[in-house]
């Protein structure tokens, strides 16, 4: 499978459980790339939705993907602080060109004061039935919501106080 190379650009592909493409981020710079961990940075990158619509991200973001965790984390750097958007998802795979994962609908939005909201529970339940998520997947996903909330409260991993600033500085060195 290989690992993404630091300094290179990759696409991020999000799929749904039924195999359909959900969303594609055109360009993310690899800041750290191993077979088990990818940290990337992007700013004003084109995002293509499954219906073909496109939009451009509004602010710099640091992305955290792990091959053993059923979530990924995006730290968005705004004037009033860092906002996080966490996708409950499959662990990532890297196919040599793109980082890929399955998006399982549930999301957690975290504000600069580290308060958070669990989002899209209705969408998750609808897709769980429509796409027939196996019971074991349902259990894994719910366990990982709890794990993610623990990480948020403990300021662990990508939620550590200096994590986003450190990786954003690294991202800026590649942009020069």
UniProtKB/TrEMBL annotation:
Keywords: Hydrolase, Magnesium, Metal-binding. Has nucleoside phosphatase activity towards nucleoside triphosphates and nucleoside diphosphates. It comes from the Bacteria. It comes from Mesobacillus zeae. The keyword Magnesium applies. It is an enzyme of class 3 (hydrolase). Its cofactor is Mg(2+). Residues 18-156 form the DUF402 domain. It catalyses: a ribonucleoside 5'-diphosphate + H2O = a ribonucleoside 5'-phosphate + phosphate + H(+); a ribonucleoside 5'-triphosphate + H2O = a ribonucleoside 5'-diphosphate + phosphate + H(+). The active site is at 23 (proton donor). GO terms for molecular function: magnesium ion binding; nucleoside diphosphate phosphatase activity; ribonucleoside triphosphate phosphatase activity. Its EC number is 3.6.1.15, 3.6.1.6. It holds the Pfam family DUF402. This is Nucleoside triphosphate/diphosphate phosphatase. Mg(2+) 1 binds at residues 87, 103, 107. Mg(2+) 2 binds at residues 105, 107, 120, 123. Gene3D superfamilies: FomD-like. The keyword Magnesium applies. Belongs to the Ntdp family.
């Amino acid at each position: 499978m290989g690992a993404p190379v630091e300094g290179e650009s990759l696409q991020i592909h999000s799929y749904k459980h039924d195999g359909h493409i959900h969303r594609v981020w055109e360009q993310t710079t690899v800041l750290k790339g191993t077979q088990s961990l990818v940290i990337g940075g992007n700013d004003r990158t084109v995002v293509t939705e499954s219906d073909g619509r496109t939009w451009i991200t509004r602010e710099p973001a640091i992305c955290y993907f792990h091959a053993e965790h059923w979530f990924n984390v995006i730290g968005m750097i705004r004037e009033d602080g860092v906002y996080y958007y966490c996708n409950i998802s499959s662990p990532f795979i890297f196919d040599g060109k793109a980082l890929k994962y399955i998006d399982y609908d549930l999301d957690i939005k975290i504000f600069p004061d580290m308060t958070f909201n669990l989002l899209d529970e209705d969408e998750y339940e609808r897709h769980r039935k429509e796409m027939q998520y196996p019971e074991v997947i349902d259990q894994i996903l719910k366990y990982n919501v709890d794990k993610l909330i623990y990480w948020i409260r403990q300021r662990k991993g990508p939620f550590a106080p200096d994590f986003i600033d450190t990786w954003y500085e690294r991202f800026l060195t590649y942009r020069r």
